[in-house]
Every structure is written in C-alpha cells, then in structure tokens.
Write a structure and sequence with these properties.
Layout lengths: L3 E6 L4 E7 L2 E6 L4 E11 L2 E9 L11 E10 L2 E8 L2 E9 L2
Antiparallel strand pairs: 1-2, 1-8, 2-3, 3-4, 4-5, 5-6, 6-7, 7-8
C-alpha cells in the first residue's frame, strides 16, 4: 500500500487513488474533483494523511485536517482499513489496480 494505484466506491461512483512516496491523490467524479494529501507512515499498517488541497464542494474536511488510517487486513488485492478524522471513524476497502 506504500505505492500504487487503487480504487474504492461503486462502479457508479468510483474513486481512484494514487500513492507515490508520501503523496496521496484521490480523484472524485471522474477526475472533476480531487483531494491531495501528504502521508506520514507510523508503521507498515498505519499512516496519518494530512490533507493539503480539497476541491470537492461542501466536503466536511479541509486542508490541514489529518486522517488516521489503520490497515486491518489484506486479502489478495483488497485492503480493508479503518479511517478516523475529527473523531469520526469508518471502515472501508481499497482495491489495488496497479
């Protein structure tokens, strides 16, 4: 998960994610909007992601907000995680595409 291209969401609302070194980019709405962040790895299974740019209208988080991500398990190309930002947590799944 330290490097590569991933996706999450549904076919209708698929979000593409790219991680290169400490740079994290999410492309929403077929690339119309994006979130750019810097990643600081705590260990192999946890990182803090500081948002640096957000273009999604009415998005609840802004540049400077930090999201903690803990990788719970990896099954093949699927990465299951728990994200926490501003006291709210949720579980999700990323699928590695490259």
């Amino acid at each position: 998960m330290h490097e590569g291209k991933f996706k999450y969401g549904t076919e209708k609302e698929e979000v593409k994610v790219e991680i290169k070194g400490n740079d994290h980019t999410e492309l929403h709405n077929k690339g119309k909007y994006f979130i750019k962040s810097k990643i600081n790895w705590v260990n192999d299974c946890e990182y803090n992601m500081t948002m640096t740019e957000v273009t999604i209208p009415n998005f609840p988080y802004s540049p400077g907000d930090v999201m903690n991500v803990k990788i719970n398990k990896v099954v093949g190309k699927e990465i299951f995680y728990t994200s926490t930002v501003k006291g709210l947590s949720w579980e999700g799944k990323l699928t590695k595409t490259e």
